[in-house]
Amino acid sequence: MEAHGELITAVIVDDHAAISAGVRYWCEQAEPPIGLIDAGDRLAGVWTPPGADADVVIFDLELVPGKPDFGELRRLVEAGRRVVVYSQHADNATAIKCIDLGALAYLTKREGPDHLVPAIRAVAHGQPYTAPSLSGALAADDTPDRPRLSPRETEVLRAWFASSSKELVAAKLHITVKTVDTYIARVRVKYANVGRAARTKSELVTRALDDGVITLAELNQAASP
Amino acid sequence: MVADDDLGRQTTAQLQRGLRIAMVVVAGAILFGLGLLNLVRHLDDHDLPVVQLVAFAMLAAALAVVAAQVVLRRPWPVSHRVVVAVVLAACALSYLTLPGGRTSTEVDWIFGAANWVGLAVLLDRPLRTVVAFLVAHELLALANVVLLNDVSRNSLARFATGSVSVLGFPLCVAVVAAVLHRIGTAAATATRELERVRTAEAVAEAAHRRRAQRFADLAGTTVPLLEGLADRSLAPSDPAVQRRSAIEAARMRRLLAESDTVEDPLMHELRHCADIADRKGVEVELDARGRWPVPPVAVRRALTDAALTALATADSWARVTVVGDGDVVAVNVVADCVPGDGVAGDGVAVDDVAVDDVAVDGVAGDRGETGVRVETFSSGGTVWMEARWKPTAS
Question: Of A60, A175, A218, B130, whose CB neighbour count within 10 A is largest?
Answer without folding.
Answer: B130
